Prior knowledge:
Blueprint: H1 4-21, E1 30-34, H2 40-47, E2 53-56, H3 59-68, E3 75-78, H4 87-92, E4 96-100, H5 103-116, E5 120-126, H6 146-155, E6 159-166, H7 174-191, E7 197-199, H8 206-211, E8 216-219, H9 221-224
Parallel strand pairs: 1-2, 1-8, 2-3, 3-4, 4-5, 5-6, 6-7
Helix pairs in contact: 6-7
Amino acid sequence: MSTPAERLAAVRQRIADAARAAGRDPATVSLLAVSKTWPADDVRALAALGQTAFGENRAQELTTKAAALADLPLEWHFVGQLQRNKAAAVARTGAVVHSLDRSSLARALSRAGEERGRPVDVFVQVDLGGAAGELAERGGAAPADVPALAGEVAALPGLRLRGLMAVAPRGEEPGPAFARLAALAERLRADHPGATEVSAGMSGDLEEAIAAGATLVRVGTALFGARPLTSPRVTPVTGVPPEVAPEEV
Length: 249
C-alpha cells in the first residue's frame, strides 16, 4: 500500500505532466485535497507534507475539522451543495465556497461575509448536464443562467467572485464538457476580469480538466484512498440527505 507521501507526489506529478502537455506552467494549477469522510488526523498527515488546501462537502464536517486543526495554517474549501441555513457557519470558517448556484444562496453568503467583515470567496457552479444531457444531475446553475448569476454575485458586497466550478457529467467523456466550461469561463472573464479561476477535475479526469484550462483540481481518492461505503444521513422529516454534494473524488 502506498504512503501519503507517495500518493501526494504521484498526484502532483500528474498535475505537472498534464500542465506541460497543455503548454502551461504547472505552477498555474493548484491542488485541493478533498478530505470529506476522512478523519482530521489524515488531513494533518498531508498537511505535514506541505499540502495546505483542503475541501469538505458537509458543513458540520467542515466546522468540526477546521476547529480540530486550528493550529495549522490551512485553507478550507466547501465543495458540496450548500443550504442557506448553513451559509453563516461555513463563512465563519473562512472557507472558499465552490458551489454557489442560486441567487438566494448568494444573498445568504453575502450577509455572512458582511457580518464577519470579510467577503466570502465563491465560485459559481455550472451544471454541465447528466448522462442524457439533462441539467441538475450534478448540481449547479444552468449554463444560460451563469452570466446573470455571476453579475449578481459580483454586485454583492459580502462576496468575491473567483470564477467557475463544475463536475464532469457521468456517462460521457469529460473533455467536451470541460471545453464547454472553458468557453463559459472565457465569457465570465470578459465581464469580470478578476474572476480568473476554474475549479474542475478530480482523481479520474484531472488531465482533461487541466487541458481545458482548470486552475484548481479537486482530488480525494487518489490522495486518501477509496472511501468506505456508508449510508447517507437523512432527515427524519423529509427522508432525504440534508446536504447533497457533487462527488469530489
